[in-house]
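chain below, 218 aa
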Amino acid sequence: MLTFSEENYIKSLFHLQQNTQHGVSTSALAQRLETKPSSATDMLQKLSDKGLVDYIKYKGALLSPEGYQLAAHIVRKHRLWEVFLVKTLDFSWDQVHDIAEQLEHIHSPLLVEKLDAFLGHPRRDPHGDPIPDKNGYLPEVQKTLLSEHISGQESILVSVKDASDNFLKYLNQKNISLGAHIKVIALEPFDGSMTVEINDLTHYFSPTITTNLYVQSL
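prediction:
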């Protein structure tokens, strides 16, 4: 059985390697986990010794097939617990991440499968991220950043890149949630800011906002 720290490391590798075909650098891993690169290097060596990570010093790390399966299962638990907290206990989407971080370390495959069945086998968590299935398969979601869209283009909000409490609270204040209909009204070439219409209300978005909203074109 892995320690909580080891589980957090392989989960972070799981997320980081989704965006690269090469090894994940120790600096990128350390930054995500808010620790020192030397600490990340030490942990990668331990995980490599356990056969969970393929790690070559100075070239980065990738999860081994066994490590990937374990990490996908942790991500599965995390996202199912987030769905449970929102759907069953009426938490808002900006309140569930830290709680799910604790619940994801519960080791009970039967509990996870009963939780999945109880929730009706959801495919996405409250932030729009896909939930790995029990075999570790992570379905690919077709989406683009709102920042890549042009004037007149219409889309549906399907997930958020930044799932921090502050960003989600900002969206709550604007009454913006998954499934919102977005139309780009105007694009400012100078800095990439946008005027958009969301559910018949007009908003002005900076690039900080548009680069953190994933949408599907209509």
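Helices lie at 4-16, 26-33, 37-49, 65-87, 97-103, 109-118, 165-173, 207-210. The two ends are 46 Å apart (CA to CA).
thats it, cya
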